[in-house]
Design brief:
heterodimer; A: Enolase-like, domain 1; 26% strand; B: Aldehyde Oxidoreductase, domain 3; 3 domains; 5-stranded mixed β-sheet; 29% helix
Amino acid sequence: MKAAPFDYVVPDTIEEAVQHLADAAGDVSILAGGQTLMPLLALRMATPSLIVDINRIAALSGVSRAEGAVRIGATTRQAQILADPTVAAHAPGLTKATALVGHHQTRNRGTIGGSISLAEPAAEYPATALTLGAVIEARSARGVRRIAADDFFLGPYTTALEPEELVTAVHFPEWPAGTRLIVEEVARRPGDFALVGFVCALVVEGGRISRAGVGWFGMGPTPMRSRKAEQALTGQSATGLDLAGIAALAVSETDPMEDGHASAAYRRKVAGRIFQRTVGQALAEQRAA
Amino acid sequence: MSASPPGGVAARFVGQRVPRKEDRRLLVGRGLYVDDVVLAGMLEAAFVRSPHARARIKSLDLEAARALPGVRAVYTAADFAHFGLDLFNSFAGRGSGPTVRTLADGHVRYVGDPVAIVVADNRYIAEDGAGLVMVDYEAEDPVVTIAQARDGAPVHDGYTDNVGVAAATPDDPEIAAIFASAKHVVTGTIRHQRQAHVSMETRGIVVAPHGEGELTLHLSCQSPHMAARYVSLLFDLPETSVKVLSKDVGGAFGLKIQPWREEVAAIAASLKLRRPVKWIEDRLENLTSASQAREQEITIKLALDAEGLLLAADLDYACNVGCYPHSNDCNTFAMMLFTGAYRVPKLAYRAVSYYSNTVGQAAYRGPWAMESLARETMMDVAARQIGIDPLVLRERNLMTAADQPYAMPSGMVVHGVTPCETLELALAKVDVPAFRAEQARGRAEGRYLGLGVAVYVEPTTMAMGGPFSTDSAHVRLDPSGKVSVVVSTHSQGHGTQTTMAQIAADQLGVDVADVTVLEDDSSRGGFGPGAGGSRQAVSGGGAVSHASRILADKVKAIAAHMHNANPADIRIEGGQISVAGVAEVSTTVQAIAEAAYFTLDRLPPGMEPGMEAQYRYRPPPIVFSNAAHACVCEVSAETGVVKILRWIASEDCGVMINPAIVEGQIAGGVVQGIGGVLLEEIAYDAYGNPTAVTFKDYMIPTIHDVPEIEYCHIITPSDSEGGFKGVGEGGAIIAPPTMVNAIADALAPFGARCLDLPLTPTKILELIEAGEKG
C-alpha cells in the first residue's frame, strides 16, 4: 500500500493550480483533504503522474454570502462548515448534512470541494447540493464556469468537470427562513456511507407547500433527485397529503444497487419509510410552528 | 474476596487494578513494534499475488522487475526449492494436511496466493517491482463455498476430494431411541460467516541474518520461543541460532500463532541475499491474504423431555478451512464442548472440514466458539417452541455445584464452575421483570426491545500435552534489590508485563514498581508457548508464583541466619524485612540481596550465593472458567438497524490478578463478537474474489457501536497455583449468541429465527417481513 511514483506541486494561487492542471493534460489528481485520494493512491487505484496540492491556496477556503447564496470555498473543511454560523443561519441544510459526514477526525481534513468533485453516490454533500439547487463554481486556465448541480453529477465518481478544471466553490442558494429541512440517513455504523440517504426541503406558505426539493444518496449511480415527487408535493395542502403515494413516487425515481451492505429492495423499502416518516414529521412541526 | 497466595505472603497487588506498566510507553508512542525496527542495510519486501482463485501458472517473466533500479531480488518458488520449505503446523508437526509451499509452485489456489517476493531498497520500489512481474495464468473453476467443496474438483494435488478431516461419534442406537421417543425435538441450522482477525498491527517481520547461519527475527508473534522453534525446524537450523525479538505486538487473536508463508518467504529471501529484509503486511494484504477464521455451518437437533430437560444433542458440522489452514482439523473441540454448562446425557456429532480456493484458516479467539453460538441460540429456539421462558429452560438444565465434577458426554470433565450463580447475578443486574414490562410497553408503541442471555464454560490453559504443557519463569533479585522476571508468557495486549509483576511482587514482598517482566526475547529464559488457549495467567502465572516463592524462601533463610531468627518468623512487606516478635530487627530485601552476591560469608553455610530462582510449572490440563452474558437491544422495524442498549458480563475466572485487565479482555472479545453478529464478513464472489478488501467494506465495530459493558465477578479459585483461570477468549465466544438471542427476542413478535450471520439490516428486515406474512 505505497503510492506509485508521482510529481507533487503545492501552488499558492488558483491561477498557478489551474495552469498545472492545464499542463498535465488529464494525468493529474488534485489533493484537497485527501480522505479519498490518499487511500486510492496507497492502493494504486489512482496512479497520476502529478498531484496538485491545493491546501495552501488561501483563496479557496472560507464561507461568504453573495447573490442570494452561501458560497463555500472548495477547501473549507467539513468541521469548519459544521461550526460556521453563516452556514447555520443561511444554509442550514448544509449544516445538517455535514453532521452526518464521516467522523470528527475525518471532518477536520475532508473538504466540500473534494466531496463534490469525487461524486460518491452515497455521500451526503452531492445529494444535498443537488436537492437544494447548488451551483458548482469551477476554474480552469480558460476562466470560470458555473455548473448547476443538476448538470454536474453524471455517474458514479463522474462529473461534468473537465480534467483541467478545479472546483473553487459551491454556492448554496438561500431557501426562505422557516424551510423545513430533512437530512436523514441509514448507515450500518455512524459515519459510514449511507445505505439510504434522504434530503428534503419544503417551503410551506399559508398551509400549502409552495416549493419542494427531494433528493437521495446511496440510491443510484449518482445522487438522485425526485422531480415527480417535488411536483406532486408542490401546491398541495400541508395536511392530508397522500404521503405513502408520494413516497412511492419519489422512490420510483431512484435506481438503487445491491452491494455487500444492503439489497436494492432494502434500499427502496427503507427509503419509502424514511420519506413518509420524516416528511410527515416535518409537516406536522410546520403546523405546530 | 481476595486470595492469599500460598507461602504466608499478603496479597497486596494480586486482585488490584494496578495500572499497566505497558501503557505509558504505548500511549506516548514509544512502543517497539516490528515496523519501528530499522537496521543498517535493510531491504523491504512486497509480494506478487494471484488475482485468480485457481489457475495454472503458464509462465513467469521477472526480467522487467529485476531490471528496475532499486530492486535487489525477485524470487519465486524455484528459488526457494533448495530450502525444502514445506510449512507445517507448529503443534501437530510435519506430515499432516496438504503440502504448503512458501510461494505458489505451478498453481495458484486462492486470490492473494503469493507467487513471487520482490525485495528492494524500500517498499515503494518493491511494489513498483511487483507491478512489473508478468504472470501468464490459465484460470480454472474455483471451489469457493462449502457446498462447492463437497463435490467440486480437489483443491490439492494428491487428494480425491476436498475433505480435510472428518470426525464423528460412533453410531449409538440409544441416541436414535431418545430422539424417537422425546417429547420435544428441536432442530435448526446456523451459519457463521467468515471473519478476519484484523489485529490493529498487521503481520510483519524484520529478518537479520548474521554469523554462520544465525538469524535474528523481529517478529509480530504470539510467542518468541514458539516462533524460534518453528523457524529452526523449518530451516533446519539449531534452535540456539534463531533469536526472535517481539517487544510490542498490536493484537494477534490466533493469526500470529506461528509464522506463515509470507514471514517464511521473507526469511528465505534474507538468507539468500545475506541482508536484513523487512516485510510489513499492509491492510489490503491483511484482509485478503492473512489467515482467516470461522465460516462454519451446523445443524443441531435437540431432544428434550416434557419438562424441557435436555436428553440428547445431535450435530452435523462443516467448516470451510480454505486452502492452507494452519491446522488440519475439523474443530472437533467445538463438538466436544457443545453441551457447555448443561447436563446433557448424550451427544452425537459428525464434523467435516473442507478445503477450498479461499484463504486458509487460523485459530481465532475461541476457535471452537461455534458450540456456544449453536447451543445458546438453539436453547432460545427450543424455549419458544416448547413454550418455556428461555431463562427457565436454562435454569432447569444448568449444572449446579452439586453436579460437579460433571463429565460431559464427550468425556471432558468440568468442575469448579458457577454457571447458575453467574446467570443469577447477570439477571439481577438486568432486572428482568422491569425489562419485560418495558418490552411490552415498547411493543405496543412499535418499539422492539430484546433481551438475550447466553451461558458457557470456557476451557482454558489447554495444557493437555504438546507445547502448551508448561511455562517457565526465571526470577532474579539483583544486588540493587530490583527484580527481573524472565517468563515464557508473551503479550499482544494481554498486559502480562503487569500481571506477572503483580504475582512476583506479592510473593517477594516487594513493590510492583520494582519488578520488571521480560518476555520479548526467545534467547532469554526457557521455552514457553506464549499466548494461546487463554493460558498465560494460569500457566505463566503459576510459574512466576512458584519461582518467586523459591526466591522469597531464600531471602527469609538468609535474613533468619543473619538475625538468629526462625525463617518462619520472617515477614517481608514493601521491601522491608521484620522478624515476628523482635521489633528491633529491621532490614531490607535489598540488603539481603546485596549480601547474597557480595558478602558471601554472611550466608548460611553451604548456601548457593546469588538470588536467582527458576521454576517450570505444569498447570492442570484444563482449567474451566465460565460466564453468563446478557444484552438488551432495540431493533428498528423501520430500518433493521440494531442498537445495543446494555451489555452485562457476569463471569468467574477464579482469582483475578488484575480486574481491569480481566475486564479489558472481556470487552475486547465482546466487541469482536458484536462485529461478528452485526458487521464483519469476509465474502467471496462466485469467482473466489474477496469482496471486502478494505475497512470501507470489512466493517469492524467502532466506539459508536459498542456499549459500556457492565461487569459482575464471582471468584471461585481454581486448583491451579494462585487459583487463577483463563479469561482471554470468553468474551468472543459468548458475545455472538448473546447478541443473536437479544435480536431474536426483539423480533419474537414476528416469529423470527435469527440463525445466519451477519445479521445485516437487510436480513433483519427480511426476517420481519417473513414474520408479517406469517
